[in-house]
Write a structure and sequence with these properties.
Layout: H1 20-25, H2 45-58, H3 85-102
Length: 108
């Protein structure tokens, strides 16, 4: 059974945040002091959630003081160390290898 709101537009034009911290902060600061940015519209919740998770990971939100939203899919990670450069470099090598392999090129 699908959700009762299937096919209906969400409140994305009015929605600001689910953060209790931000809601309290807005009682003391004007909303004009904040930037509300919509990067993209998605047709499915799955697409939206994936895009949000990808974005938060891409900017290292849990380690940053720049972003208010540091919870990934409603989960708060206690992150005290960044992804190492070695990890990033090795992942890039694996991505290149996987692309070559998927294209039928040399797998070594």
């Amino acid at each position: 059974m699908r959700g009762k709101n299937e096919g209906k537009e969400s409140n994305w034009k009015r929605y600001k945040s689910s953060s209790k911290f931000l809601k309290k902060l807005w009682n003391y600061r004007d909303l004009k002091e904040f930037d509300f940015i919509v990067l993209e519209q998605y047709k499915t919740k799955g697409g939206l959630r994936y895009a949000e998770t990808w974005s938060l990971c891409t900017v290292d939100a849990p380690l940053s003081t720049v972003w208010y939203n540091t919870r990934i899919e409603g989960i708060s990670f206690k992150v005290t160390e960044a992804i190492t450069e070695r990890h990033k470099q090795r992942l890039q090598l694996i991505i290149k290898w996987a692309k070559r392999r998927a294209n039928g090129k040399n797998s070594s």
